[in-house]
Amino acid sequence: MAEKRTLKFIGALGVGLFILCIPIFLITSNLRWAVNEVRLYEYGFGKYDVSEETGLSDGELLEVAQGLIHYFNTGERGEEFEIFNEREVAHLKDVKGLIQLCYHLQEATIGYLIVFTLGGFFWQRKRFTPSLARMMVGGSILAIALLIVMGIVALVNFQWLFRAFHHLFFSGDSWILSGYLPRIFTEGFFSDAALFIIGAVVVEALVLGGLGGFFVLRGRRARG
Questions:
Q1: How many CB atoms lie within 10 A of CB 105?
Q2: 3-class SS of residue 82
Q3: DSSP secondary structure string, 124-190?
Q4: What's the start-to-end Cα distance of the chain, in Å?
Q5: What is the DSSP string of 134-145?
Q6: To 10 degrees, the CA torsion angle through 148, 149, 153, 154?
Q7: Is 128 in contact with 121 (CB distance < 8 Å)?
Q8: Alpha-carbon distance values, 157 to 146, 160, 162, 164, 203 (Å)
Q9: Burial 75-88 (b: 16+ CB within 10 A, else e)
Q10: 144 vs 121: CA distance, rounded Å
Q11: 158-178: per-residue pLDDT in tens?
């Protein structure tokens, strides 16, 4: 009896973790895309007149963006860093650490999702399909709920969200900067990037949840 309860607990824990991994995977995947998407940087530079604000040409700003992407992925600093002061360089090091954590979370969650799915089909064969479909729906609903809340907060008071994020992930006032960095990457740039990510995650969650819902309904009709 105790063994059955233990197995049920482990199974429920595995299912709950699978559902939780879906929003984490979607969010970290889109964050990874945003960090590495040069066109997003160029969009922000153009929209917020960064060239006029900083005196840097569009070509120089593009080099800065590409240099930062390279740094976030490899840790190697190029000549682009010469425009940043020591405080900004220290902050970028903290940002790189946070981005690498995001990468590891993405890799860990996709690994768990794949292993859990393969394990489920190995043990239950086709009988696992309805369970997988329900978990997909559950994870998608959780992702959409979280992102809707974040989206509303971002639209109502992004400045509060921006500050809360930095207080949570960076020590003290190390993120309060003066120099090129805050002029290149404005608060408006981060607001737009956040809304792009939120929108992408919601769309992806709707597609994933719709796919899961399709299999749930098909299974019910088959039983009916």
A1: 18
A2: helix
A3: HGGGHHHHHHHHHHHHHHHHHHHHHHHHHHHHHHHHHHHHHHHHHHS-TTTT---SHHHHHS-HHHH
A4: 33
A5: HHHHHHHHHHHH
A6: -40
A7: yes
A8: 16, 6, 9, 11, 23
A9: eebeebeebbeeeb
A10: 27
A11: 888 888 888 888 887 778 888
pLDDT for 7: 72
Q: What pLDDT was estimated at residue 106?
A: 97
Question: What is the pLDDT, as a whole number, of residue 10?
Answer: 82
Closest CA to 28 of 132, 146, 130, 118: 146
Structure tokens at 199: 């929108």
Find out whether 184 and 48 touch, Cβ atoms under 8 Å.
no
Compute CA distances 178 → 18, 39, 79, whole Å: 42, 25, 20
CA torsion sign, 203 to 46 to 65 to 172?
A: negative
Cβ–Cβ < 8 Å for 212, 137: yes
Please give the Cα distance from 93 to 84 (Å, whole number).
12
Q: What is the mean pLDDT of the chain?
A: 90
Query: Which pair of structure tokens corresponds to residue 182?
Result: 């805050």
Name the band, by pLDDT with cuts 50, 70 and 90, for residue 73: very high
Task: Please report the pLDDT score of residue 224 as a whole number.
Answer: 58
Where residue 50 falls among pLDDT bands split at 50, 70, 90? Answer: very high
Q: Whose structure tokens read 């530079």?
A: 45
